[in-house]
Write a structure and sequence with these properties.
It is built from 11 helices and 2 strands; from the N terminus they run H-H-H-H-E-E-H-H-H-H-H-H-H.
Length: 293
């Protein structure tokens, strides 16, 4: 029983990271209709910057956290500007161009991380050390902080998108960029803000996971893939979708670890891909998204 609880809590903690990265995809897509494949690299770079500020410059964690988010926001804005360099509200970037550009930026950011921090994995500082016993399972305080942070960010983002002018403008730009431009909304500025917001959410995920999973410059692709899985499984353009998708993905991956031997580890990698294929075939809009006419 203890092992089952341990696996479930580990799955929820890992799924919270996937959910946060999926939220980053959702925020950028709902404002620009661009699937930003560089999203995973923000988690890596945010974690590395946070680690550097704390370990090398001895800054307090809150200050280091703010600096890491500012760096990630700058990278998000740079991504939007590069992808939309030659676009206009009446002439948006093509889907192929956007995907290839953000994929190239993912590789570029991973290369920058390799040059700045090297190839050796590094472990970030924990927000709170120690463990707590939950139904006989030992859970680290870092995992609890991760799950709590995902819940707070999701609630705050939901309120922001529903209740603020900027949040409604983001949705308006996604639905009709030309009409939004004619109504006086600065489409490029809204898009840059959405990319910056998505990047800061991704960096937060990297900071939270760095004490649990050691940081490596090649993790950007791993975070990107699982973030997309969470985003597509739960459903596009909604805060609840990536959260549900991320938690389900984390639970599915960790439940297979209960299978003894190497079979469970293999299924942990294969089964989520099979789930994605089935979702794309039978329910491409995701679990929570309404089917469009």
């Amino acid at each position: 029983m203890d092992s089952v609880v341990q696996v479930l809590i580990s799955g929820l903690s890992q799924g919270s990271i996937y959910a946060l990265i999926g939220l980053g995809f959702s925020v950028a897509f709902m404002a620009s209709r661009i699937l930003n494949l560089a999203q995973g690299s923000y988690a890596v770079l945010g974690g590395f910057v946070f680690l550097t500020m704390v370990s090398s410059y001895r800054l307090p964690m809150p200050v280091a956290f703010v600096i890491a988010l500012l760096v990630a926001a700058g990278l998000g804005i740079a991504t939007e500007r590069i992808v939309n360099l030659r676009t206009r509200p009446w002439k948006p970037v093509s889907l192929d161009m956007a995907i290839l550009s953000t994929l190239a930026l993912l590789v570029l950011f991973e290369g920058a991380a390799f040059l700045l921090w090297g190839s050796d994995p590094k472990r970030g500082p924990s927000i709170q050390n120690g463990v707590v016993s939950i139904f006989g399972a030992l859970v680290s305080w870092q995992s609890i902080w991760t799950m709590a942070s995902a819940a707070v960010i999701a609630i705050g983002l939901h309120v922001f998108l529903k209740k603020t002018w900027v949040g409604r403008a983001m949705r308006s730009c996604a639905q009709n960029a030309m009409m939004s431009h004619l109504l006086g909304i600065n489409v490029r500025r809204i898009g840059a803000f959405a990319f910056a917001l998505g990047a800061t959410i991704g960096a937060t995920a990297g900071i939270l996971v760095s004490p649990i999973t050691w940081l490596d410059y090649q993790l950007g692709g791993f975070f990107m893939l699982n973030g997309i899985l969470a985003y597509l499984i739960g459903g596009e353009e909604d805060v609840a979708g990536p959260i549900v998708g991320g938690l389900l993905l984390g639970l599915v991956q960790n439940i297979f670890l209960l299978i003894p031997g190497a079979t469970g580890g293999l299924l942990k990698q294969v089964v989520p891909m099979l789930i994605l294929i089935l979702m794309l075939v039978f329910r491409p809009q995701g679990l929570l998204q309404q089917r469009r006419a």
